[in-house]
Design a protein that fits this description.
Radius of gyration: 20 Å
Number of strands: 6
Low-confidence stretches: none
Largest sheet: 6 strands, mixed
CATH topology of the largest domain: Butyryl-CoA Dehydrogenase, subunit A, domain 3
Strand order of the largest sheet: 2-1-6-5-4-3
Number of domains: 2
Order of helices and strands: HHHHHHHHHEEHEEEE
Strand content: 15-25%
CATH architecture of the largest domain: Up-down Bundle
Shape: globular
Number of helices: 10
Mean pLDDT: 88
Distance between the termini: 25 Å
Length: 287
């Protein structure tokens, strides 16, 4: 069985989806997809019995290698690290396996707290619905070990289990949030955010941003009011589909300026993610 160009078109959305969720980076996921297929094209046709399983195994293993090497980079990263936002409105649906599960910024940030193996097992099982037998084959581990890894990973992510993925409902809440800011209605804002809300501002050391997470409703709202005051005069925003959820996409002089995403649970904003790092903005998001 030989890898063909048709296989590339058929499987690249799946491989990209695995890579992006594993790494939180569009560019790295795209690079690995190309690398996997270049390698697969060179394989003897007798080697591959199950194309999907083999390609997923290659992709997962390469992601694990990148995660392990990225640990040092993340330790020296200036300020909080947010996953690279994925503007789904800019993507052809045929190019991406669009599932709400495991795609939100909150979920991808949570993945950073898992070991590489926990990250892989959790995604392959919960998001892509691989059997434990298939996962064991991909990771070259025992099936029972994969079950234990999955259980351990689930315990670590319990704090994001309550995330709302209702797009239209969340969009209405964000519109209320924006209106309250525009009218400076502090009482309305306090009703929309958790008392313990946390804001993660990612400038990557290239754009001025908070170098530590900002916590509590009073501090977070004060921080956002400060940003609004200092915003460029020509800035404007749109509500767009970012990582499967509504987000505030800000533009300055037609260029992408920043993206504000939210973690919403029980109709309350519990986390805010502001991505300003130019390396994560202003580039085509294609596979």
């Amino acid at each position: 069985m030989q890898i063909s160009n048709d296989d590339y078109q058929h499987y690249k959305p799946l491989l990209f989806s695995i890579g992006y969720r594993m790494l939180g980076s569009v560019m790295e996921a795209e690079d690995l997809v190309q690398e996997v297929f270049l390698k697969a094209y060179q394989l003897d046709e007798q080697v591959i019995e199950n194309k999907k399983a083999y390609l997923c195994k290659m992709m997962t293993n390469r992601c694990l290698d990148v995660i392990k090497s990225a640990r040092i980079r993340r330790e020296t990263y200036v300020g909080p690290w947010n996953p690279e936002p994925l503007l789904l409105e800019d993507l052809d649906p045929s190019e991406f396996v669009i599932q709400k599960e495991g795609l939100s910024i909150a979920y991808l940030r949570m993945m950073e707290h898992l070991s590489p193996d926990e990250r892989a097992v959790l995604l392959l099982r919960e998001v892509f619905d691989f059997s434990y037998l298939e996962i064991a084959s991909i990771l070259e581990k025992k099936e029972e070990n994969c079950r234990k890894i999955f259980s351990r990973a689930k315990q670590k992510i319990s704090h994001v289990e309550g995330e709302s993925l209702n797009y239209e409902k969340n969009k209405l809440l964000i519109h209320r949030f924006i209106h309250a800011f525009q009218t400076q209605n502090t009482n309305a804002l306090l009703e929309l955010v958790s008392k313990n809300v946390t804001l993660y501002s990612d400038g990557g050391g290239k754009i001025k941003a908070a170098v530590r997470p900002v916590s509590t409703s009073s501090k977070v709202l004060a921080f956002i009011f400060g940003i609004v005051k200092k915003a460029p005069a020509d800035i404007y925003f749109e509500i767009k589909n970012v990582n499967g959820q509504p987000a505030i996409v800000n533009y300055s002089n037609t260029a992408l300026h920043s993206i504000i995403s939210f973690y919403i649970s029980d109709d309350i904003i519990t986390e805010v993610y502001i991505t300003l790092n130019p390396d994560k903005l202003n580039k085509p998001q294609r596979i």
